Amino acid sequence: MSAAAELYLTHVLDLLQDNSMDTKKVDWPEVRRRAFAEAAGAKTTADTYDAIDLAVAAVDNPHTVFLRPAQAAEFNPSPEAEAPDTGVPPPVPRGRLVGQEVGYVSLPTTDRIPGYAKAGAQVVRTLDASRPCGWIVDLRADSGGAIWPKLDVLAPLVGDGRLGAFVDADGNQAAWALDKGRLSVGGKVIPKDLPPSIETGQDGVEDYVTHNAYVLKRPRPPVAVLTGPRTASAGEAALIAFRGRPESRSFGLPTAGLATGNAAYPLHDGALLLITSAADMDRTGRRYVNAPIAPDVRVAFTDRDMRWGADDPVIDEAREWLESRPACRQ
């Protein structure tokens, strides 16, 4: 094995062992022995990829993934390349009134899209002019990305306080908190403009969050959260932020089962290592790992039901519950 290949493989194995929330379940001496045996004779970094796949498989976490350079380029485009040459802007939250008194906000998948939070915050403000008594948050098309822009949009609905936490392999917690629009994790406030990352090499993002301190005209409303099998990762974290909140209920189908926090480690040859470093925890202390989160009320639906303006049984069920709540019967 060449020195370059050995150094590369050692670095990746160290990242996995040091950062995976599953590290205590893995026999690392044996994994290293097998990985180096697999990569015997490797001359380039690419020659070690199969050995890295072996180590990732040993971690046995569906959210921990090794992406080869071509895959990494597709996975992590720059914000400007979200929709190249189409004239179509990146997806941002949208909303409407359901009936006369229910606000509806749909959150799509996002990862480092400038202006996502700003657009979503404006949706909430516009709908709130009609003084909704209750709100529907639709996460059924939210397969993940970045959690903080989503929670920034939802700040007026979810309310101040501890919203959840990340929990690592040693049980250390980094709380998600909201205070007058400012989101923080582990006590560190999420900045409005995300700076470039020295650790990951990712570019900065302007208008990442807004520090959304808007106060609803009818505060502390009942909130129905809609979920389905495409609700994943950061989408599940948005759901978890409402778990344990008074006057909150979920409707739809179970989520994807990837309610964990990932860290991205770009490698010098263009490959990317995504390591599941923490489990999500709700405000009551319940941990969520890699199992689907069942809704409080199961309601079957199809993709056709989710089309904008279609009759949607999940929205209908959520609206019925909201209209039964005290806030909507005053």
Average pLDDT for all residues: 92
Low-confidence stretches: 77-88
Shape: elongated
At the fourth level of CATH, the homologous superfamily of the largest domain is 2-enoyl-CoA Hydratase, Chain A, domain 1
Distance between termini? 74 Å
CATH topology of the largest domain: 2-enoyl-CoA Hydratase, Chain A, domain 1
Helix content: 25-40%
**Strand tally:** 14
Number of helices: 8
- Just name the CATH architecture of the largest domain: Alpha-Beta Complex
Order of helices and strands: HHHEHEEHEHEEEEEHEEEEEH
Class derived from helix and strand content: alpha/beta
Radius of gyration: 21 Å
Describe what this molecule looks like in 3D.
- By secondary structure, the chain is α/β, with parallel strands linked by helices.
- The protein has two domains: about 5-60, no CATH class; about 100-330, 2-enoyl-CoA Hydratase, Chain A, domain 1 (Alpha-Beta Complex).
- It is about 25% helix and about 20% strand.
- The chain contains eight helices and 14 strands.
- The chain has helices at about 5-20, 30-40, 50-60, 70-75, 115-130, 145-160, 235-240, 315-325, and strands at about 65, 95-100, 100-105, 135-140, 160-165, 175-180, 180-185, 190, 225, 250, 260-265, 270-280, 285-290, 295-300.
- Strands 1, 5, 6, 7, 8, 11, 12 and 13 form an eight-stranded antiparallel sheet that branches. Strands 2-3-4-9-10-14 form a six-stranded mixed sheet, with helices on both faces.
- The radius of gyration is 21 Å and the shape is elongated.
- The chain starts with a helix and ends in a 6-residue tail after the last helix.
- The model is unreliable at about 75-90 (pLDDT under 50).
